[in-house]
Amino acid sequence: MNIGLEKYRYYTELMRDNDLFSDISHDALDQLLEISSAQYWPKKTCILDPTHTLYTFYIILSGKVKGYVFDDKHDRPLTLFLLTQNDVFDVFTLINGEVRDIRYETLCDTEVLSIPMYKLHEWIHQNQDVYKALLKYTTDKMRQMENYISNLIMEDTSIRLARLLYNHVNPSSRHVELLSGLTHDELGALIGTTRTMIGRHIQAFKEEGILRTERREIEITNLALLLQKISLNT
Amino acid sequence: MNIGLEKYRYYTELMRDNDLFSDISHDALDQLLEISSAQYWPKKTCILDPTHTLYTFYIILSGKVKGYVFDDKHDRPLTLFLLTQNDVFDVFTLINGEVRDIRYETLCDTEVLSIPMYKLHEWIHQNQDVYKALLKYTTDKMRQMENYISNLIMEDTSIRLARLLYNHVNPSSRHVELLSGLTHDELGALIGTTRTMIGRHIQAFKEEGILRTERREIEITNLALLLQKISLNT
DNA sequence: CGCTAATTGCTACCTAGGTCACATTTATAC
DNA sequence: GTATAAATGTGACCTAGGTAGCAATTAGCG
Predict the structure, then answer these.
(1) Number of A:B CB contacts under 8 A?
(2) How many C-beta atoms lie closer than 10 Å to residue B224's C-beta?
(3) Is B214 on the interface with A (CB under 8 A)?
(4) How far apart are CA B82 and CA B77, in angstroms?
(5) What is the pLDDT of residues B5-34, one digit of tens each?
(6) Which candidate, B190, B79, B87, places its Cα nearest to that of B141?
(7) Domains in chain B and their CATH numbers?
(8) Which residues face B57 on adjacent strands?
(9) Shortest CB distance from B153 goes to which of A78, A102, A140?
(10) Cβ–Cβ below 8 Å for A152 and B149
């Protein structure tokens, strides 16, 4: 990484905070940063080529990335997971060396470290401790995925939307910053439903006094009511 | 393990075939078998206590086990995954040491190796190579789970049932042995729907000449038609 | 065997949520 | 600004799949 010292320190701090690398020695972390390069991805940057993650591994420093598959039958994308600070992708291709048909797209401006796979493999070979950390990481993701599955089957779309909003509201500003600027189509993709449904639910939430919208900004006006909607129906 | 030599050899062979332990030395595998005890679980054996897997780890030698959560709202169980030969559970509690609210139940007679967690932790400490194998194992499970999610959202219940049958049919006998003996309620739990729906679809499949039933035995009479049902609608 | 409980088949009905259509509003480009 | 495209609001309508109820069948057990 040929960057300024200040930036370098910033990356080191971020990596040090990442549970995946907390057991890694200072030297090893330096070596990892050596083979990494920082990238800035503006909102809506896409990785559409599924083979791309065969050759490059990413560590998210800030921002949000969604991983999704495309549903040909209904002609719509379907989000499988959201990745954010300290997440990495794609562990599956890193370990198994196989392509899988998942695409990525940034939901907001995002900073990542990009690492060539073959260099990362070399680094991991010298730092086998990371396997344990990666295992903890993936089992944790797996639990999240199990929750997502039960959520999908057990809850209806309005509760899923309420939960999405609640999980991403900024407690101080009451704005749902992550989701602001997304169209109803995109919100639908995040919870596995259609723009029509999103529109209807948002209208309903407005009437119930839960939220207010203005130019694709969503502001929660009554957080208690929103929370109630999630927890009552379980 | 104080068992006959023959049984012991049988277990060793099974473990040797398990990808999780293929990189483990002969000695280490012996040590693992030392701390294991074999158990035979008849069909419908349940592990209802979620804390149980905090203290015991299982390796499935033969049979099938489903992991599920209970949906209080609809008052029905919902299967998250099926485990079979060479699967282990629960990796999450092994690594994170936390309980999670998942129950287990055997779908047919099942043989497992049971290992006390604290002994397994000691063993793993001496055999850190297993982390890499476990990581491969979990990432693979994760991909299966992703497929399950897209399946749930994209396909309707009849296709999910068709796929369930297709995945478990014995190609030579044409019988769906795993699912034979299960009630419609239990089949419903496996694909996230109700007994009514299962009944309707099975009736429909009969009329289409896809299958035949007799005393809870399901026999596929036209495999091509079944396959067509799965693959046409994607 | 014969009794009881569980399972199934089937009907009628209801609801969530999807599709389609089209007017209205908002963004973006020129 | 205006023209064009994109996004939204809203209506009517349709379908999958859920619920409830009950009769018919089957399994399990003394």
Answers:
(1) 103
(2) 9
(3) no
(4) 14
(5) 667 788 888 888 899 998 888 899 989 998
(6) B87
(7) 5-137 (2.60.120.10), 155-232 (1.10.10.10)
(8) B115
(9) A78
(10) yes
